[in-house]
Amino acid sequence: MRMKVPVNNLKTIAALIVTCLAATLATLLFSVCADACARLYTAIPLLCTALPLAGLAGWGIYRKLGLEASWSTSRVISAVNNREHTPAVLLPAVFVATCITLLFGGSVGKEAGALQLSVISAEKTRAALHLDAKYSRLCMLCTLACAMATLFGAPVAAALFAFELVAWNIDRPWHIPVVIAASLAAAFLVHALGIPVIAHPVTALPLNADTVGMCLLIGSCACVGGAVYCIGIRAAREALGTSVRRQVIAIIGAGAAVAALMIGGHTFAVAGTGVVQLNAALAGELSSPFFALKLLVTVVLLGCGFKGGEFLPMLTIGATLGAWLACTCGIDAASAATANLVGFYAAFGMACFMATCTNCPFAAAALAVEFCGPAVAAAVIPAALLCSILTSGFSLYDNTRAITPVTLHSPRTRPSKRHV
Questions:
Q1: What's the rounded Cα separation, in Å, for the pair 420 and 418?
Q2: CA angle 316–319–320, rounded 5-degree value
Q3: What is the pLDDT of residue 415?
């Protein structure tokens, strides 16, 4: 039976295109500004001495604009899902606060800001174009996919991530190809503009006891590390609650401690999104235990109220963990002949860590495949699924805490408004 797309006129199609374009352009602008701030910090690493003030600035921006500190990617998605109000002032707040954190050496990512910017800008654009509210979830899914495809140039992973972020709660069957098309279009735009993306192809490893043993070791460590990362951030945020006094003390203390660690230990590289180390690990050129310090600093800063994302640091921690374990077990990362092995295990660790933290196994596996090629597919798909199942009770995103079956609402059935 054919699926018919219930689009009545060209206005609806045009509105969807404009909405996706607005989200993609917002993501591109934010990404450029965030990267510029990170580069400036790299040039002047002693900017980290002002990290406590940067944290207070981000926190102060939210309070000045009347925003609760709890506004996160998960909450924005839930609000749009349930057709609740999303404050427009969150757009400049998350933009500026994330850039400030990166400028002064915060170990955070930029994807949370990009996802929130894309979803909110899409919702406001949809309303401005008078597109029916029944398309809210479709617009959100398209813009989530566009944002991730714009950041990583990985359209399949981006579309899967959008679906998994809403626990596969899809209004109509025809929404699936529309979201995929939006993701592909955003990725095409990234490639057309010549924006560099992560790409480190590896070759398949032989199926033997050594390979299986290494995968079991990395997968187990990534699963445990991902749980620590996820629980640490959530527990710290919940401990702070809504107390202004606790929030201010936590921001100042965390910022000062991290700044002292970076200056005293000359570990300035731990700041930022970690994309440099991610590339190095996937290329088989990194063998240090960078993941441990990155995990600690990121959990402390995000848990104590600094504004920024957890996604890119999460990928970096997983990839560097896999690379380090491979090198620790006897693989020489300096050898060109074994760089492929290190890159393979780095991709494997990244996928397992992401699946654990997000409960998005299909997106995690697809991202590893799009970064490193189909050679990793046979290893990362079952591993990501297993990690996700073992840790399905928690996630960085409330929407994905349990694997749920696909929900395709009948055209005559009104979608459920439960919190997902």
A1: 6
A2: 80
A3: 41
